[in-house]
Amino acid sequence: NAGVTQTPKFQVLKTGQSMTLQCAQDMNHNSMYWYRQDPGMGLRLIYYSASEGTTDKGEVPNGYNVSRLNKREFSLRLESAAPSQTSVYFCASSARVLNTGELFFGEGSRLTVL
Amino acid sequence: DAKTTQPTSMDCAEGRAANLPCNHSTISGNEYVYWYRQIHSQGPQYIIHGLKNNETNEMASLIITEDRKSSTLILPHATLRDTAVYYCIVKHEKLTFGTGTRLTIIP
Fold first, then answer.
1. B1 pLDDT exceeds 70?
2. Residues A95-114: pLDDT tens digits?
3. Which residues of B touch A40 (CB under 8 A)?
């Protein structure tokens, strides 16, 4: 049972390049989330998806787009990467939405934008 | 949105109980208190959650005050592997983890 799987684990981009972070969960969870964590900081919510076919902005959505491809997969896209987007990105899933249900996190994707 | 306040860092001797406080004075009546921890740079790990009553599981105990404005996470017998950043969050619409408490277990 893999839980939440993120790919890639590491990525280096040049300013202006685009890329997509992939996330998949095998726990049949309804809700999925993308967070970013900057050095020495807590996690900030970028986008979330309460259920298949829906997405909503979190605290720091600018510069990102998301797609809930199906119940298992939730991708995060950077259309034109900027150095300020250098961070560790975590995907999480939950059986229920928002106010209840614990979050299960992936191992993180470490992105550096030069 | 309910916000939480936690001490920046704490130390605890190995084998002793670690008590981590959290203030959430603006919590709403239907909001749960959740605790997670993050070891090194791994993804956060769920520990425990509660609404009104005290809760206990195999990892920890959660004590919530009667007015629900604060809570304490208790690790009853801390080990070196409990060294981590501990996050107290109140589940609301925009799930945000603050900077948490960096707990260091001292041998």
1. no
2. 876 556 788 999 999 999 99
3. 99
A107 closest CA partner among B35, B38, B60, B91 = B38
Query: Rounded distance, CA B26 to CA A67, Å?
Result: 33
Residue B27 one-letter amino acid: I
C-alpha closest to that of B103 among B37, B44, B52, B46: B37
Separation in Å, CA of B1 to nearest CA in chain A? 12
Tokens describing residue B93: 């619409």
Asked if the Cβ–Cβ distance from B44 to A90 is below 8 Å, we say yes
* Tokens describing residue B107: 């041998």
Three-state DSSP class for residue B80: helix
Tell me how far apart the alpha carbons of residues A112 and A78 are, in angstroms, rounded to a whole number.
12
CA B85 from centroid of its chain's CA atoms: 9
Give percent helix, percent strand, percent coil of chain B, each to the nearest 5. 5, 45, 50
Is the separation of the CB atoms in A81 and A15 below 8 Å? Answer: yes
Pairwise CA distance, residues A71 & A97, whole Å:
14
Nearest CA in chain A to B28: A99
| Secondary structure of residue A88 in the 3-state scheme | strand
- How many secondary structure helices (H) and strands (E) does chain A include? 0, 11
Of A29, A9, A77, which Cα lies nearest the Cα of B46? A29
The SS3 assignment for A70 reads: coil
* Residue A1 confidence (pLDDT): 61
